[in-house]
């Protein structure tokens, strides 16, 4: 049953976006945890739920490894299962913690306070440890509902907390047949979220920027072939020349499948020199080498001013770099991934002046980490992100990436222009809504306006600190009561609270 609840939960995420499913399945998980008779039983239930959630939700990993990385079928299946199992362990340990701290005499308090706090703690740790894997945070499922009003205040984890509290209150209502308290709390929770949606955290500043987001639609099985090198460049150059009236033109992640120094002195030499004479900023995804070293970076370079570069900081584990290199370097030979050992770029790189306004930049995976993107604020007036989702074409992953973009725009109070190789290329406004897009898996250009904004949301200023503080207070109280007031210093008094 836990496995089923977890698998069905994926219907709440993009592209399905049936948000009530998440409240129901999370309430189902909490109900199973209530029925567990031991900490190990709670762990097993959580593990099975995680296997369902991540087994369906991140199944796109198999596609990238088997179809595009040349990994043999058995190894691709095994590696995907190991990754899914690893992510599921966080939910398993959440189940263990729920049973460890559980108090059967305070069911309502457990469902409203403990269970949601443990769930959010598991998501927080999953997004921090071992490079961070913040996939399928339940807060993403409630974009477009009243609960997303919490995003500018306490971020996506805050929305996850509100969803988990809703699930706990729903279960409290059903199990205890006591409708007054849970109904009032549920109404307050959602009403406050609705009121927060009306708060204007940021204000527009300056005139909109005319952007052209290039979508080359180069399939991953062709991207790195030598025979496709010049046709790829021709596609991007021709689409760029057709849109030179824009303030900013953006190519996707590694649109140029080689070192910048190579094309600067070769295939794009004339084009780059011409770009330096024009007023249009042309931001291209490319590999940037570091002279005199064997370091190379996943980078964005402004052809109008090649000294302006952004070097990707948060790399993808086991794809762009290998953690614990001496232990796992052998894995690089199993994956046919060009440039699989990138170097981390420096942290807190300043915004880049693009289209006359400072822009915060990110590449692909970095869009999942709102607290890191917030470091470019308030200087950055809008955000630009690029990606190459051809690795995961026709799977759930590109849709989930767009959900990340929508959440980041809402959290940070900045419009986001996203250029991708195969889609989805979009412009998202500060309400987390798509204001412009083009069809995926087609060659095209998204021409649209990006409005710069000034000011800071509460989340942009304080990041995860409020969430961490609330977790510290809750678990600090629980631990103090368990160990200092009762467990160690006398007889437990179950009716004190």
List keywords for this structure.
17 helices, 497 residues, 2 domains, 6-stranded mixed sheet, disordered C terminus, alpha/beta, 46% helix, Nitrilase/N-carbamoyl-D-aminoacid amidohydrolase
Short note summarizing the structure:
The chain is α/β, with parallel strands linked by helices.
What can you see in these coordinates?
The protein is of the alpha/beta class and 497 residues long. It folds into two domains: 2-199 and 465-487, no CATH class; 203-460, Nitrilase/N-carbamoyl-D-aminoacid amidohydrolase, CATH 3.60.110. Helices cover 46% and strands 14% of the residues. The chain contains 17 helices and 14 strands. The protein has a six-stranded mixed sheet, with helices on one face. Strands 7-8-9-10-11-12 form a six-stranded mixed sheet, with helices on one face. Helix 2 packs across helix 7.
Topology, please?
Layout: H1 2-9, H2 20-35, H3 39-57, H4 60-68, H5 73-101, H6 107-128, H7 151-176, H8 180-196, E1 203-204, E2 209-215, H9 220-223, H10 229-241, E3 248-250, H11 260-264, H12 269-277, E4 281-289, E5 296-302, E6 309-311, H13 325-328, E7 352-354, E8 357-363, H14 370-373, E9 382-387, H15 397-412, E10 416-420, E11 426-428, E12 434-437, E13 444-450, E14 453-454, H16 458-462, H17 465-487
Parallel strand pairs: 2-3, 3-4, 8-9, 9-10
Antiparallel strand pairs: 1-14, 2-13, 4-5, 5-6, 7-8, 10-11, 11-12
Helix pairs in contact: 1-2, 1-3, 2-7, 3-5, 4-5, 5-6, 6-7, 6-17, 7-8, 7-15
């Amino acid at each position: 049953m836990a496995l089923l609840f977890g698998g069905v939960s994926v219907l709440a995420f993009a592209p399905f976006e049936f948000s009530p499913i998440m409240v129901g399945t999370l309430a189902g998980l909490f109900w199973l945890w209530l029925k567990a008779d031991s900490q190990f039983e709670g762990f097993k239930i959580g593990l099975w739920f995680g296997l369902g959630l991540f087994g369906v939700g991140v199944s796109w990993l198999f596609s990238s490894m088997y179809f595009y990385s040349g990994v043999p079928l058995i190894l691709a299946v095994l590696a995907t299962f190991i990754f899914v199992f690893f992510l599921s362990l966080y939910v398993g340990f959440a189940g263990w913690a729920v049973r460890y701290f559980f108090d059967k005499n305070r069911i309502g308090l457990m469902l409203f306070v403990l269970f949601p706090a443990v769930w959010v703690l598991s998501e927080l740790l999953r997004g921090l440890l071992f490079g961070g894997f913040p996939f399928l945070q339940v807060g993403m499922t409630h974009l477009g509902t009243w609960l997303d009003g919490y995003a500018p205040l306490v971020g996506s984890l805050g929305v996850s907390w509100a969803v988990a509290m809703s699930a706990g209150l729903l279960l409290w209502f059903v199990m205890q047949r006591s409708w007054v308290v849970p109904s009032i709390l549920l109404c307050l929770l959602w009403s406050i979220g609705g009121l927060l949606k009306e708060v204007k955290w940021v204000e527009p500043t300056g005139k909109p920027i005319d952007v052209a987001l290039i979508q080359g639609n180069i399939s991953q099985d062709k991207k790195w072939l030598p025979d496709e090198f010049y046709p790829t460049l021709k596609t991007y150059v021709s689409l760029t020349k057709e849109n030179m009236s824009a303030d900013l033109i953006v190519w996707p992640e590694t649109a140029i499948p080689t070192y910048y120094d190579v094309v600067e002195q070769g295939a794009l030499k004339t084009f780059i020199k011409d770009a330096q004479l024009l007023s249009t900023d042309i931001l291209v995804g490319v590999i940037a080498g570091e002279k005199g070293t064997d370091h190379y970076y996943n980078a964005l370079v402004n052809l109008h001013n090649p000294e302006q570069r952004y070097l990707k900081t948060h790399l993808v584990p086991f794809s762009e770099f290998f953690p614990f290199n001496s232990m796992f370097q052998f894995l690089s030979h199993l994956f046919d991934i060009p440039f699989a050992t990138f170097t981390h770029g420096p942290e807190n790189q300043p915004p880049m002046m693009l289209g006359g306004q400072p822009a915060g930049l990110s590449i692909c995976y970095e869009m999942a980490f709102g607290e890191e993107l917030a470091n470019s604020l308030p200087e950055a007036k809008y955000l630009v992100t690029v990606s190459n989702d051809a690795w995961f074409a026709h799977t759930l992953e590109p849709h989930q990436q767009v959900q990340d973009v929508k959440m980041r725009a809402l959290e940070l109070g900045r419009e986001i222009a996203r250029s991708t190789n195969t889609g989805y290329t979009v412009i998202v406004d500060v309400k987390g809504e798509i204001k412009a897009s083009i069809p995926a898996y087609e060659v095209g250009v998204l021409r649209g306006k990006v409005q710069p904004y000034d000011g800071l949301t509460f989340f942009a200023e304080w990041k995860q600190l409020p969430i961490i503080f609330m977790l510290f207070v809750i678990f600090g109280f629980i631990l103090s009561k368990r160990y200092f007031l009762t467990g160690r210093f006398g007889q437990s008094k179950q009716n004190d609270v």
